[in-house]
């Protein structure tokens, strides 16, 4: 009897650590998806405010083109600071960089409560810095989380990266839908551009951003190897300069990143075209300023749905190539339509056409967001910070170009640039994917 009891205790002692270990492993695995949803929802809360404010910037702050110039300054600052962003993220860690990055967005919205040159310009400059580190931090954090999840669950890395990017960009893209519905609800009863209506709107946006910042604090640190990188990069000035060289200059010696850059630049061009030209030259004449919120809500909804679907369908380079082909085709059709056959009409069709265009443009944006992030995560797994820094450098530079050029060129000229951009960037991207696939196939056959 006593022996049996002892055996039972021994057996229990042997099994208990296994049960605790299994529970701990399961908890760690579930934390990966938990962090993806926390990150996604935090970005949704922050960017539903910023995205809607950006859409209204060129129509609300019209005095001396304050809104347009502020956005141009913002994206020039974004471009310049993106050169240093990967080093900052390495030193701080991706989680801390994400939290610090939210402060720039908060300050920019606060400046819109009293929009003058003395408030908007400094806020735009600082937000450029904040945006550079929040986006490099996001790309690094999300890809590292996906890789850890794939490794711990014995899953295909490319599939997990695509799936996690689909979840993030799907939720992120819905910020256009939610934020513009909030704008529509708060501004529709007042006169367009009224001070009281916009004040209430920006206060609501500040509350949303504050919640998003708080939510960021609940992310788990995903440093791993990056912890060693941060310690090394902070020891000496030489190490910091070496880190800067590695993250900015060295990636440009990789032929693959050079072939991705045109598509990255186009993704920025098409976003800025929607914000600066499509809303002003296509939506406003047909639906009025108050209709901008509704059209951009349609844009955001299609963007979100497409991001989720595209992310789920992403499993590797072949799927990325097919999905990007569809997005490029949709955008080319819209630009040709606007160039050759579109003219504002009255009645139902006059309302439907801009909304249909917004939906198709949103589909293309969802494609480029998810697939570019997945592509960089797959091709540049050994230098994620540098790859995502390149993404934001070229994206923000192209966005800044559009904001500064938009007041000085015609819509037809801009559409010609956009059509040429999508054709050239897609052609270069297709050449890259075919070459990489050829290398993979050759390596597999040799093995």
Automatic annotation (TrEMBL):
GO terms for biological process: potassium ion homeostasis. The chain crosses the membrane at residues 36-54, 66-89, 96-113, 125-146, 167-187, 199-219, 248-269, 322-340, 352-379, 415-434. It is a multi-pass membrane protein. It is found in: Membrane. One of its GO terms (cellular component) is membrane. Keywords: Membrane, Transmembrane, Transmembrane helix. Belongs to the unc-93 family. This is UNC93-like protein 3.
């Amino acid at each position: 009897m006593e022996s049996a009891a002892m055996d039972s205790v021994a057996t229990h002692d042997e099994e208990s650590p296994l049960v605790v270990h299994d529970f701990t492993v399961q908890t760690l695995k579930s934390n990966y998806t938990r962090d993806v949803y926390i990150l996604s929802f935090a970005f949704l809360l922050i960017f539903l405010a910023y995205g809607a404010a950006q859409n209204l910037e060129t129509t609300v702050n019209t005095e001396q083109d304050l809104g347009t110039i502020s956005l141009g300054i913002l994206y020039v600052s974004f471009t310049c600071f993106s050169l240093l962003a990967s080093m900052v993220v390495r030193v701080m860690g991706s989680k801390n960089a994400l939290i610090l990055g939210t402060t720039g967005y908060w300050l920019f919205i606060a400046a819109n409560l009293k929009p003058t040159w003395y408030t908007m310009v400094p806020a735009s400059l600082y937000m450029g810095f904040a945006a550079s580190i929040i986006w490099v931090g996001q790309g690094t954090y999300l890809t590292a989380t996906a890789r850890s999840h794939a490794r711990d669950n014995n899953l295909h890395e490319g599939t997990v990266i695509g799936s996690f990017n689909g979840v993030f960009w799907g939720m992120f893209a819905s910020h256009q839908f939610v934020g513009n519905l909030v704008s529509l609800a708060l501004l529709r009863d007042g006169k367009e551009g009224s001070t009281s209506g916009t004040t209430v709107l920006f206060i609501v946006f500040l509350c949303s951003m504050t919640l998003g910042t708080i939510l960021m604090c609940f992310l788990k640190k995903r440093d791993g190897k990056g912890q060693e990188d941060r310690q090394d990069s902070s020891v000496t000035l030489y190490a910091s300069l070496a880190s800067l060289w590695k993250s900015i200059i060295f990636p440009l010696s990789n032929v693959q990143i050079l072939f991705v850059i045109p598509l990255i630049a186009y993704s920025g061009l098409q976003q800025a075209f929607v914000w600066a030209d499509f809303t002003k030259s296509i939506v406003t004449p047909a639906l009025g300023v108050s209709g901008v919120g509704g059209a951009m809500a349609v844009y955001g909804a299609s963007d979100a749905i497409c991001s989720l679907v595209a992310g789920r369908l992403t499993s590797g380079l072949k799927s990325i190539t097919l999905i990007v082909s569809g997005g490029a085709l949709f955008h080319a059709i819209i630009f040709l339509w606007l160039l050759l056959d579109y003219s504002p009409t009255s009645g139902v069709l006059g309302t439907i056409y801009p909304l249909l265009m917004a939906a198709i443009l949103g589909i293309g944006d969802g494609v480029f967001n998810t697939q570019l992030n997945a592509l960089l995560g797959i091709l540049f797994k050994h230098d994620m910070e540098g790859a995502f820094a390149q993404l934001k450098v070229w994206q923000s530079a192209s966005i800044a170009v559009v904001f500064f050029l938009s007041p000085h060129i015609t819509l037809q000229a801009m559409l010609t640039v956009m059509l040429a951009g999508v054709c050239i960037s897609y052609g270069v991207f297709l050449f890259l994917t075919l070459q990489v696939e050829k290398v993979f196939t050759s390596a597999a056959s040799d093995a």
